[in-house]
Amino acid sequence: xxxxxxxxxxxxxxxxxxxxLTPGTSVRWGLKTSSLPSSSSSSSLPSSSPNxxxxxxxxxxxxxxxxxxxxxxxxxxxxxxxxxxxxxxxDIAHLVKSSYNSxxxxxxxxxxxxxxxxxxxxxxxxxxxxxxSLNSSRGGGVDGNVGIRVSWDVxxxxxxxxxxxxxxxxxxxxxxxxxxxxxxxxDYLYLTVGGTLSNAGISGQTFRHGPQISNVHELDVLTxxxxxxxxxxxxxxxxxxAVLGGLGQFGIITRARIVLDKAPNRVKWVRMIYEDFSNFxxxxxxxxxxxxxxxxxxxxxxxxxxxxxxxxxxxxxxxNSLASENGILYxxxxxxxxxxxxxxxxxxxxxxxxxxxxxKSGFIFKKDTSFFEFLNRVRNEELELEAIGQWNxxxxxxxxxxxxxxxxxxxxxxxxxxxxxQSKSSGVFLVYPMNRIMWEDQSSAIIPxxxxxxxxxxLHSAGGAVDQSIIEEQNDEILRFCDKSGIKIKQYFPHxxxxxxxxxxxxxxxxxxxxxxxxxxxKMILSPGQRIFSSH
Length: 536
Fold this sequence. Notes:
Number of strands: 19
Distance between the termini: 8 Å
Helix content: 25-40%
Shape: globular
CATH class of the largest domain: Alpha Beta
CATH architecture of the largest domain: 3-Layer(aba) Sandwich
CATH superfamily of the largest domain: FAD-linked oxidases, C-terminal domain
Radius of gyration: 24 Å
Structural class: alpha+beta
């Protein structure tokens, strides 16, 4: 791993030929397309400008450095040496190739919309690539939306070729113009395609369609050697599976070919309240095991995490009073899509599905809204929190996958004994089941061994009277409880401090993960912020 002073010396020698480096300025260099890597397995790089010279900037302004050294979590701050604002993929390829060919390679992190929570997209003393810069510089396609192209193929059906820098909200808007949409989502859409595919990409549709990484036909990936490679299940498959859920360790996703399907017009959005956790989980598991619904999630309602504005004020007040009496309630959230062909039968279909459920009598609440408004639901909450200064606070999140066989123990030991009784933190606390069969075993993503498991998202918000350190201690207490109780959890958005912890996390995939790192990023240039192969 390059030392900071060696990195600085190398960058100076690289760029001094074309510009003078002064504090608070940007560095620019000339780049010939002939200097870029090529191989029979590599995709063609984007065409150069008319004079065949490509220009990019390495920004060292304080504003660039501050942005690149922060993220949504507001917990970690690692200062890079500089920030690349690329105008093309060739610019990024040149940067990576320059590091790879150096005797003192410098680290590089691809940053999307900055929604990591523990510095995963940072590069201390290295270079951060602001991927969203590509959004304003790529040539537009027939859709008029830069970096998003909708197509049809006789074998694939409808699909979208999407730049890794694109936000899912823009993918939704563009595909809806064609009456289409991806089938698997995240709860929050202001995330980049490359970012979510580097983790997994999960939401209430995952039980039906799998995570986002299970709905990709093909990728273009810039490896740690600076090679731009197209890959799929049948072409360069080792790289394809490595990158999906690979935490940015093997390459930078520059294009993804995403599965599309016909988009519905509207949704029936239903929430049901439970006092008993066993009834709650039994009903969730029943719903994801039968046809009918398109989305199933669930969450806790407590004194510190009350019913939100989905409910009418009077209903919310009743629910919160019940939560105060019980200490904790469980809310099952279900959605069914519909359009003109079933508009007259949708209510009857839902009634048949819900007849067998055991929610608290009278505590079922329904909304009818557009497909777009439902998928973009978290945006409204974001704007409300921003308005009162509660969005840009520390977010010491803990995201876990919990085996189905131990979810009752987890409820008692964590939801009741820690979240409810200690009452130290506020935020959204998610809990809902998934089916293992919908996940690709060959991908780098790590999930429990059982056929059904639960996602638990403890999405804490610090600030004000809630101290971040107290929540971090609580998170550690939860992890210790799981370890002591033998609950074989897996972290989603994993965060570990030691190599041994990473080895335990990956389990029998660790050997393959190491081999793929040696194959595609042998000098360990990419995504140092994950701290998997180094404490840097």
